Structure formats: C-alpha cells, structure tokens
C-alpha cells in the first residue's frame, strides 16, 4: 500500500468522471494504491458516495469481452442476494458499459468493502467457519449463472465433465521435464557472483532440486484424476486468505475475482485452505465440514481437493522461476515476493509428507 504520484491522482479523477464521481474526491484523504503480483493496481478513493475501489487493468491482462462478461457474472451474483461481491459501476453516459478505456488502459470502479484481510493472522474456528460458508454461498450463487453464448468458454456449467485445471497441470509437468530442469540448474552455476543474484539463484536451485523427485508422483496422480467426471461451474480459482475480508467474525467481502472461470469447486477449496494451513492441521477437516453444511461435496470432489493441493504445492513456484531466469530478477527485491517464494519452498519441502 502506498500513496500514488499526483499525476496518477489526475488520472483517477478523469476515470471517476465517467462514473459521475470526479467532484467527490476527498482533498483531505488522498488515494492509496494497492499493487498485486499480476501488475494490477487498485486505488482506494474517498468520494461523496463513500470509499470506492478504482482498478487499472494491466495492458496484457484479460481481453475486454472476458472482463465485461466477468462484470455481468458479478452482477448476477449480487442479484441472487449475495452481499460479499462488489459489482462494478455502470458508466454515467452508457449504463450498459462498466469499463473505461483511458490512456491505453482499461479501468473500472466499484464499492470499497469494509473489513480486513486478517484471516491468516487471526485463525479461529468461528472465522474459518464463516469464511468457508461464505465461499459456499458464492459457489451456490455462481452455479445459477447462465452466460451469453460468446462467453460460455469462461463461465459455463456442466453436470459432469473432466476437470480443466487437471489437464492444464499435466501440460505444465510435460513442459518441465527433468532435462529442462537440469539445463536450468547448469545455467545457475554461471550466475554473476553478487549477493542479490546469489539469493534468487539459490532459491531457484533449491526449489528445482525438491521438484525433480516429486514430479513423477504428482504426474501419476494427475493422470488418474484426468479420468474423473465432476460438476463444473464458475469458480474463483485464485482465492486465498488475503481475498477474504472480515469484520470481527463476519465475512464482509470476497475480493479479486479476476481469475474466475469454469472449474470444479475443489480448486477454490484447495487454494484457500492451502493458503491457511497444511492438510494435517485440525482446521482442515473443520473447514471442509463447514463448507459442506451449505454445499455438499462428492467423494470424488473431496479427493480432488487433495489432488489440487498437492499439485499446486509442486507447481506454484515454476512460474516465478520462469520470471527470475527470464530477466525479472528485480522481483526478488520486493519483500512481499520474497516472503511468498520462501513460503512456496517451505510448502514444497513438506509435500512428501502428504504423498501416499
């Protein structure tokens, strides 16, 4: 979180004008900006209508039509009575449009939800139950959405089908062959010997050494799961503890649905639970039981939660490795990124404990 440059404030004012909010920016409460790993920027702005979130989409982000259909999907969720979802505002001059194209970027504006993303730091049975039941409510509302035909690729429903993410993870494993890993490890021996490079190259080396013996076992597990048929519906796909906002024990919002797409609900359960605690933690079963009080899971879906957790643990660091060896070593200077990568490596080291 930081304060944006004054030139950005002018940009925000110009974007807000499309929503009829430009004149309400609080002079005594300058905007604050929150930057995500994806490159997206979200500005918290005080207006006469209360605090709003102004999001600038990265230029290499989702296509415009997918964002529009995502906004239509979010509007549907709110219409079902779901209060934990923020719906992008319509433009003042075009009530059917939620996106603003300004200086080469797409923007949208929505209400700023109250609450804190402190679930991980204040874990209690009550808060876990509230969070998992809020996720179940989200899934139940999402299961009633009917997409427009052009958008059915992203937000469709199916009573029984193979799981898209399982095949995607199999493809990732096929790309990260032992030969490719060995070539990368060989290259790391020639990294320039300065302190910063040694830190990131050491992390890459340690991660890949852990990866090599585990990959065949995860690949076998994914090959088996590829034959399973389960229900598919729109899911968040990237919900972790920081995306759950709470006020005390009450969930006030589930934020950042950018990655939402057709999947099985098990992918969200694995992602959220995995960001909070390992499978042997007593809270793991408590969380699944709390979820199923609202949305029951089949035995296959329960197995999928574990499959998704184990494969995510193995694969999550690979995209970061591609960035680091591809010239983006400066990412490692970001303390948040560094902490995230340390956590990924520690989880990977524990993975053999969860393999049969």
TrEMBL record:
Gene3D superfamilies: 3.90.1200.10. Keywords: Kinase, Transferase. It comes from the Bacteria. One of its GO terms (molecular function) is kinase activity. Residues 40-292 form the Aminoglycoside phosphotransferase domain. InterPro entries: Aminoglycoside_PTrfase, Kinase-like_dom_sf. The keyword Iron does not apply. This is Homoserine kinase. It comes from Polystyrenella longa.
